[in-house]
Write a structure and sequence with these properties.
Length: 311
């Protein structure tokens, strides 16, 4: 009998993507981008029509990562205290006791965030930027990791309040799921949907694995030539007369961070120009406003990439 070859356990990235793609059918690129957003220590915005799987994607990631999960359904009458928490008077101790809101979780689903007023939307700004919240004069740290997945409906739908640019910039990536292809939709029809699989999903990460992967992502090598190419893309947006303004230095750092995560998810320790090109639409579209109105689309980003051919 020939000796058995040793088996190699799949990497955490492979395990996470395999579990997520078993629920979110036909959207492997979007699930990979969502994971890269977490690996790059950012927050994710998903914009699309109702019913295409935005909420299911958030639930799936929280489940396979094994993190504490909270969901907030945003409505027009919601107040900041509904997110952050509130203090109540305890008669027994004669002191006020703070009751934490749903923001005190590791994965926060901000569902239909643009149905809340700007005042309520802004309650998440400090949490997303600093990993803490300040209420009633006291600053309280949030759990680690802290990952916001916000969904929003198209601005053309009734009852939406557009996110201001300052809030949009807090999201590392913005993705769209879109309709499933024919085969994926047939599988959904035959199975009756995949959300019932969520309780059966196994956790794919052990204690400390995410923090270790995030450190490995930050260490992925980017050569001087790669940085030259990335800077050329950023500078091109600042010189494009079709745009109100170009990408900021923070956006450039975001682009590099996500490109590193994309390379890491492919099992590489060096960023390639193709990595930058792959993640550029998700990083840039919600940050580039057109002079003619609205935000840059995929065709605008593709034209930008074509304008700077690789040597």
């Amino acid at each position: 009998m020939p000796p058995m070859l040793p088996t190699t356990r799949p990497s955490p990235v492979t395990r996470i993507l395999a579990a997520a793609n078993a629920v979110i059918l036909g959207k492997s690129t979007q699930t990979r981008l969502a994971l890269c957003c977490l690996l790059a220590k950012g927050h994710l915005l998903i914009e699309d029509l109702p019913g295409v799987g935005k909420t299911t994607l958030a639930h799936t990631l929280a489940r396979v990562l094994g993190f504490k999960f909270s969901r907030i359904q945003f409505t027009s009458d919601m107040l900041p205290a509904d997110i952050l928490g509130v203090s109540i008077f305890d008669r027994e101790s004669s002191h006020f006791q703070f009751l934490p809101g749903p923001v005190f979780s590791q994965v926060l689903l901000a569902d239909e965030i643009n149905r809340a007023t700007p005042k309520t939307q802004s309650a998440l700004l400090e949490a997303m930027e600093e990993g803490q919240v300040t209420t009633e004069g006291e600053t309280r740290p949030l759990p680690e990791p802290f990952f916001v997945i916000a969904t929003q409906n198209p601005s053309t739908q009734i009852g939406t309040f557009p996110l201001p640019e300052s809030q949009l910039d807090r999201f590392l990536l913005r993705i769209e799921l879109g309709y499933p292809d024919h085969d994926a939709e047939r599988a959904l029809l035959e199975s009756g949907g995949r959300r019932e699989q969520l309780p059966t999903l196994a956790t794919c990460l052990g204690p400390g694995e995410l923090a270790a992967m995030q450190q490995d992502v930050a260490a992925v090598y980017s050569s001087p030539a790669l940085l030259d190419y990335l800077q050329s893309l950023v500078e091109a947006t600042r010189q494009d007369v079709r745009l109100v303004h170009g990408l900021s230095p923070r956006a450039a750092l975001s682009l590099l961070a996500v490109a590193r995560a994309w390379a890491f998810s492919d099992g590489r320790q060096m960023v390639l120009p193709e990595d930058v090109q792959a993640v550029l639409p998700a990083v840039a579209r919600h940050r580039l406003r057109l002079v003619s109105g609205g935000y840059a689309g995929n065709e605008d980003i593709a034209a930008l990439i074509r304008s700077l051919p690789l040597a």
